[in-house]
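Design request, tokens follow.
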């Protein structure tokens, strides 16, 4: 049959997970709007509350002016004092409520960002994850999302309310004295120039700092993932240096961001002080010349002080936006990574019949820059029974399983389950039909029960007991004081290698697979474990199709058929006896590689 040429999906991860660029683009605004949109009503209401609080404060200088005017005329101060106090209290209460609502909303923004990211990470395609660092991906969920807190609510609201308050204050000032207003605006204009020059530096430093935090995560994951190897290799000091190196980069970038932020803060503060002095000097002269009243000067000065929080609010908002933009772009990079289509809920097909598997001239390589692992693989495996895949290390045996599970797509040819190309199966339905035991038999942290029911949640106690018996794990469970509730440690470190394998097999069997893929461990098992596993597999082969990447003679001799792979091709198919007689490579493998485990 003719090979079907297909594009190899490119792993887009690494290319996209580099150091992000510095600018705030329209994509940043779009992403920011995406985070804010579900909470827009709450944000607008609390923003309005904040605005009311700020504007209530604006009346204070006016009340102060009336108070001073009243002092001059000898009228009663009670009314003005009451108004002033009322304004202060109302402004403070409204401000506090608005602040609480905003903080609460910000936490909700972080939660929904984390939810979305986690959902996305779990659905990424295998090549996309392989081209990224797990620790860096983790830091995007934990650390970068935290940076959304301010930008998503505080920055937006305080930026807008501060800008409105600033405009209102300036209008009020213009009623007091236009000349003094001109002086003030002139000085403050300088702040705007400095701030706009400095902001991109803050964005860049923050991005570097976050990227370094990602590197710390990656380095930690590497170290903790191979903790015993690190210790056994005496590599503690070197690993420490590595992690410290990333921490120092984060520190340097953080310091740089802090430097620029301080510069902005100082500039804003200085500008206000200078305008104050200028207004005091020029205003004093104008009062002396009779061009304005002392009450207007006092009110103007109060408005000037009122400008401080507005300016600080705008400066803070812009700088938070820079910080948030760094986080948004790192999070958006995960959004850009390739995910699997999950159209179906993972339903089992109606049948429980053993599956049929076929490869038709399959060609595959892991990355475009790597050589073909499968050059032209063709085989046909009928339903039921046990088929062993053998061949030298690196022949592409495990890759056969990865292609059946659709972790990768072949560049040419077809992989079929039940005569239907796996590419046409909804991914979840396809995987629901398969039980897969990887070579290193991963066991997850948690209890034995968690691990057993991982692929079949809700499975009954009887089914668990039955599978435990079949995998000879019943004895182990009885010996353990906590039985099925025993915590197995990180990656099952509290279990022996053989036990881990049997737990992985039991987990796969509990899914009642129509196709069981078993990548046999290359490590030697003791006689009891090996016999237990062999019996389990032989037993499973009665009701399901079992494919085993075999490393043991005991496995191949009981196989119904053996597929011999070499250099990305199938070179022979037959039984043990047939292949020993007709295939020199198999005869050699049988005589050398497998003999050790007889
Ligand atoms: N994720 C991957 N990315 C890039 N190359 C890979 C990847 N997985 C495997 N390879 C390469 O593909 C080739 C075939 O690997 P595969 O695991 O299928 O071999 P195998 O026949 O199962 O070997 P073994 O008997 O040692 O387990 C090897 O050269 C391996 O280095």
């Amino acid at each position: 049959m003719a090979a079907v040429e297909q594009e190899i999906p490119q792993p887009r991860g690494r290319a996209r997970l580099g150091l992000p660029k510095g600018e705030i683009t329209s994509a940043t605004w779009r992403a920011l709007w995406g985070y804010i949109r579900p909470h827009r009503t709450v944000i607008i209401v609390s923003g309005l509350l904040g605005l009311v609080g700020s504007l209530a404060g604006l009346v204070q200088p006016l009340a102060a002016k009336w108070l001073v005017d009243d002092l001059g005329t000898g009228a009663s101060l009670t009314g003005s004092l009451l108004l002033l106090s009322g304004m202060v209290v109302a402004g403070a209460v409204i401000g506090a409520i608005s602040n609480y609502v905003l903080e609460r909303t910000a936490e909700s923004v972080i939660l929904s960002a984390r939810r979305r990211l986690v959902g996305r990470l779990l659905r990424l395609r295998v090549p996309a994850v392989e081209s990224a660092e797990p620790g860096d991906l983790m830091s995007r969920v934990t650390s970068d999302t935290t940076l959304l807190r301010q930008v998503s609510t505080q920055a937006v609201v305080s930026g807008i309310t501060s800008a409105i308050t600033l405009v209102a204050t300036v209008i009020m000032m213009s009623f007091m004295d236009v000349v003094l207003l001109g002086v003030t605006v002139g000085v403050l204009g300088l702040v705007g120039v400095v701030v706009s020059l400095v902001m991109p530096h803050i964005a860049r430093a923050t991005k570097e700092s976050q990227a370094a935090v990602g590197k710390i995560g990656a380095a930690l994951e590497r170290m903790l993932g191979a903790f015993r190897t690190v210790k056994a290799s005496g590599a503690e000091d070197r690993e420490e240096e590595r992690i410290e190196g990333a921490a120092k980069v984060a520190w340097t970038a953080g310091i740089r961001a802090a430097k620029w932020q301080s510069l902005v803060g100082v500039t804003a503060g200085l500008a206000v002080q200078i305008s104050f002095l200028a207004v005091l000097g020029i205003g004093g002269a104008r009062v002396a010349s009779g061009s304005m009243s002392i009450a207007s000067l006092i009110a103007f000065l109060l408005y000037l002080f009122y400008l401080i929080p507005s300016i600080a609010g705008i400066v803070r908002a812009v700088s938070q936006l820079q910080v948030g933009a760094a986080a948004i772009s790192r999070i958006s990079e995960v959004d850009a990574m390739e995910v699997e289509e999950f159209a179906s809920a993972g339903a089992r097909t109606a049948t429980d019949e053993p599956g049929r598997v076929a490869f038709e001239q399959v060609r595959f390589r892991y990355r475009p820059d790597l050589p073909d692992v499968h050059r032209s693989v063709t085989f046909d495996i009928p339903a039921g029974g046990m088929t062993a895949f053998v061949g030298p290390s690196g022949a592409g045996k495990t890759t056969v399983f990865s292609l059946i599970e659709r972790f990768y797509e072949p560049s040419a040819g077809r992989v079929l389950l039940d005569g239907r190309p796996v590419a046409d199966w909804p991914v979840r339905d396809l995987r629901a039909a398969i039980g897969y035991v990887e070579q290193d038999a991963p066991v997850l942290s948690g209890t034995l029960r968690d691990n057993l029911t991982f692929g079949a949640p809700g499975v009954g106690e009887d089914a668990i007991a039955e599978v435990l018996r079949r995998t000879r794990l019943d004895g182990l469970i009885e010996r353990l004081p906590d039985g099925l509730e025993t915590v197995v440690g990180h990656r099952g470190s509290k279990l022996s290698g053989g036990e881990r394998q049997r737990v992985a097999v039991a987990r796969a069997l509990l899914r009642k697979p129509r196709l069981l893929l078993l990548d046999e461990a290359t490590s030697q098992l003791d006689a009891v474990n090996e016999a237990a596993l062999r019996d389990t597999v032989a037993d499973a082969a009665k009701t399901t199709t079992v494919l085993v990447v075999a490393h043991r003679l005991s496995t191949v001799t009981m196989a119904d058929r053996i597929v011999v792979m070499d250099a990305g091709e199938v070179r022979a198919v037959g039984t043990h006896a047939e292949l020993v007689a007709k295939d020199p490579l198999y005869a050699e493998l049988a005589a050398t590689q497998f003999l050790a485990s007889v």
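Comment from the thread starter after seeing the answer: thanks! The chain has 21 helices and ten strands.
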